[in-house]
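Structure in, sequence out. Go:
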C-alpha cells in the first residue's frame, strides 16, 4: 500500500537458455581501393558470405553501401565515402553476450548487442581529401560598447570548406552575444 491506495509493481525479466557467444571472428573482408571495381558479392547479389572460423556457431554476411544506405556498384572513386556493412547472426540455440568482442581481420571491437540479437558493424572507407589547414580572415576584436560584428569574416575563394555560421559568445555568461 502507498498511503491508503493499493499499488502494484511489475518487473519483466528476460532469461534465455541459449548458449552465449562472447567473441566473434570475421576474416578476409574485401578492401576498398580507389580505381578498382566494387565487387558484387558471392552470387552477384551484392551480398558476401564472410569467412568465420570452422565450427563457429554464427554466420556473417557483408555488403557495400554508400553513406546514405544505398547498395554500391561500379568503381571506388576519389572524394566519396563507402561503407562495408557486416551482419553476424547466431545459429539456432545461441545468442551473443553484450558486449561481444568482434574481431575483424585481427582488429578487436566491443559491440553492444540488444537482447542477444544480431551484430551489425559498419566499416567506413573515406576517400575524401583531408583538410589539414583552415584559413579564416577578417575576425576583429570586439570594441567595448559596440555590438560585435561578423562582417568581413571569410575564407579563401578557392577553399574546399566554407563558414557555416559565425557567432560571438560572452565567456562570463556563456550566452551568445547580440550581433
Amino acid at each position: 500500500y502507498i498511503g491508503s491506495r493499493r499499488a502494484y509493481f511489475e518487473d519483466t525479466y528476460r532469461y534465455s537458455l541459449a548458449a552465449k557467444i562472447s567473441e566473434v571472428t570475421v576474416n578476409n573482408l574485401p578492401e576498398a581501393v580507389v580505381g578498382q571495381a566494387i565487387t558484387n558479392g558471392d552470387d552477384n547479389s551484392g551480398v558476401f558470405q564472410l569467412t568465420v572460423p570452422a565450427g563457429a556457431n554464427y554466420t556473417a554476411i557483408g555488403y557495400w553501401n554508400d553513406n546514405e544506405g544505398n547498395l554500391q556498384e561500379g568503381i571506388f572513386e576519389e572524394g566519396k565515402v563507402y561503407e562495408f556493412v557486416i551482419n553476424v547472426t547466431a545459429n539456432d540455440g545461441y545468442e551473443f553476450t553484450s558486449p561481444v568482442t568482434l574481431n575483424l581481420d585481427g582488429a578487436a571491437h566491443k559491440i553492444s548487442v540488444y537482447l542477444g540479437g544480431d551484430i551489425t558493424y559498419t566499416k567506413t572507407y573515406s576517400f575524401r581529401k583531408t583538410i589539414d589547414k583552415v584559413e579564416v580572415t577578417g575576425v576583429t576584436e570586439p570594441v567595448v560598447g559596440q555590438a560585435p560584428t561578423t562582417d568581413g569574416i571569410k575564407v579563401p575563394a578557392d577553399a574546399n570548406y566554407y563558414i557555416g555560421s559565425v557567432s560571438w559568445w560572452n565567456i562570463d555568461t556563456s550566452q551568445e552575444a547580440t550581433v
